[in-house]
Request: fold
Amino acid sequence: MIQRNAEKELRILSKQFKAIAIVGPRQSGKTTLARYVFSHLPYINLENPDTRRYAIEDPRGFLGNYKNGAIFDEIQRTPEIFSYLQEILDETKSPGRFILTGSNNFLLQENITQSLAGRIAYLTLLPFSLAEVTTLAKQELNEQIFTGFYPPIYDQNLDALKWYSNYIRTYVERDVRQLKNISDLNAFDRFIKLCAGRIGQLLNKSNLAIETGVDNKTIDSWLSVLESSFIIYRLQPYHKNFNKRIVKMPKIYFYDTGLACNLLGINNSTQLETHYLKGNIFENFVISEYFKSKFHYGKLNNFYFWRDNIGHEIDLIIDKTVSIVPIEIKSGKTIHDEFFKNLRYWLKLAGEKEGKIIYAGDFDQKRSEGIEVISWKNFSLFD
Reply:
């Protein structure tokens, strides 16, 4: 098993909370991590039809078998047991009793809010980070972006193209139906591919509705589906005005670049080199690594982007409360002055003294003006 950065945080939470919910996309390693850290607890897979039927029809009797604790996998499939689980948690003082995993954040949070609020901790587990697969990572950037970071590809040495194609088919045909009563799966399939074509761009829901052939309300609903199942996330704009008008629409990204490449019809890493979205996909790669570094250490999301109405833009803003760190992301392999234009403008405007550029080249630089230039190979650290 590849060591997960989230393991440390999971062990800390297990000493403080009676129950822990591990959430994240399907196949991100939630079950593997839970069973490794809590090997002393029985494992119950609620995807199993017989087990699920027992839990739904007789939740009190079902939970009576696990009063000393258990790992309940995909627990959002059995909302009936949450109220009964609350009783058990209220009667015990022991931490780390129940580990709940789920790939459907909306359904899981809905049930936890109703029954387990204040009794449970959350940990989000995304696919591998670049740091976690250092010994297995691809040495060539485009190959790494194309391969993505889902654990089965590494654990079982699978063909990325075939794996993602089946993952998407299973997700659309199974999980989407579970989240929403979507009758036109072809339209939803078209929608998710259109989202991939908008990586790193402002999210214009009206245009998405027109191209998909549905109304704006449906687009809102479907975006929530993709977010709840950890396929996409919306990066929100940084709202501090600096006395200028700023863009207030979010930008859209995917949690995994391998999945995005598959949706874009990219069949190998060579095609990525000349793809019209190459820069956007590299930007997605960097930003998703930052998200992993936050979530796997149990930290809150403090990431934004900034753009004004005349074209100045910062790809990623890290709000540290006491300071704000702007980061520009460049897919070029050679450092040149154009890299620094927006960053210099923003530092002067904001009165900050620190900034970073992450680029597709191999060498790091520290500039005297407070700007650090970092290779894609070296940035994957907690910030």
